[in-house]
Write a structure and sequence with these properties.
The protein has 5 helices and 14 strands. By secondary structure, the protein is of the alpha/beta class. It has one domain: Ribonuclease Z/Hydroxyacylglutathione hydrolase-like (Metallo-beta-lactamase, Chain A), CATH 3.60.15.10. The protein has a 7-stranded mixed β-sheet, with no helix packed on it. The structure holds zinc ion (ZN) (2 copies). The site of one zinc ion has 6 residues, from loops.
């Protein structure tokens, strides 16, 4: 096994709960990649609350952007409440550094205390791509999303993961993304909207399953999983859409899924 991917949260925009959301899960964006004796979290939405104990492994958190649904797991996660160094990667946006962006949420009166009083020791990085985390190569490209977002690619020992969430397709961007995701073993792609919804939500910074399928074809990626499920999409809807695709290599991600590459 070269890379183990655990899906911890796949809901977009805001967490949901209740009987209609048990199968796919209601927690927001968070994916754990384990490789090279390291734990690499992609986003820190409320799914971070479900993170397994990764023991003494060095921990990095790659944040796509600081929209609330991608950072709301930080304040109460066991990870940040433990005494350890955590490398946090987040691009400067709106002229604000990673630390300044996170301090917006974790600062009175929105939250009682700042990250600086937590036992963990975050080290903030404004990433320049590509860079290495041990033997894992981390690449990034800019998504098409209001306020910006980063699409990440992890390569380790011949296996690769692309995490493309909070991204709205454009012809030009899809070409760039197809090259970026070339031959990836697993492609996670934002398919928040149905075609009908997209017609109304054009410009909101999210994509569709149809665009994901095109990208799968153009990139040569081996497996595609949709993420950032719309908070209004119930288990029945998601299951129905997945069934229609009828492709064992194309699935809607469920919180708790583990993929070994
Ligand atoms: Zn989001
Ligand atoms: Zn966003």
């Amino acid at each position: 096994m070269k890379m183990k991917i655990t899906i911890l949260g796949v809901r977009g925009s805001i967490p949901v709960e209740g009987a209609d959301f048990l199968e796919f899960g209601g927690a927001t964006s968070c994916v754990l990649a384990e490789a090279d004796s390291r734990a690499v979290f992609l986003d820190a939405g409320s799914g971070l609350m479900h993170a397994p104990d990764t023991g003494e492994l060095p921990v990095s958190v790659l944040l796509t952007h600081s929209h609330m649904d991608h950072i709301m797991g930080i304040p109460l996660s066991a990870l940040f409440l433990s005494k350890r160094k955590i490398d946090i990667f987040l691009r400067t946006r709106n002229g604000m550094t990673a630390q300044e962006q996170l301090s917006r949420l974790m600062c009175p009166p929105l939250w009682p205390v700042g990250l600086d009083v937590y036992p963990s020791e975050p080290v903030f990085h404004d990433p320049e791509f590509p860079f290495m985390l041990g033997n894992i190569k981390v690449s990034g490209m800019e998504a098409n999303h209001p306020g910006g977002s980063t699409i990440y690619r992890l390569d380790h020992a011949g296996k690769s993961l692309v995490y493309a969430t909070d991204h709205e397709h454009t012809e030009e961007k899809q070409k760039e993304l197809a090259a970026f995701a070339k031959d990836a073993d697993l492609l996670l792609y934002d398919a928040q909207y149905t075609e009908e919804e997209y017609a109304r939500m054009n410009g909101y910074g999210h994509s569709t399953a149809a665009e994901g399928l095109k990208l799968l074809e153009e990139s040569g990626a081996k497996k595609l999983m949709f993420v950032h499920h719309d908070p209004r999409h119930t288990d029945a809807m998601l299951r129905g859409m997945e069934k229609e695709l009828d492709n064992e290599h194309v699935l809607y991600a469920r919180a708790g899924d583990v993929i070994e590459l």
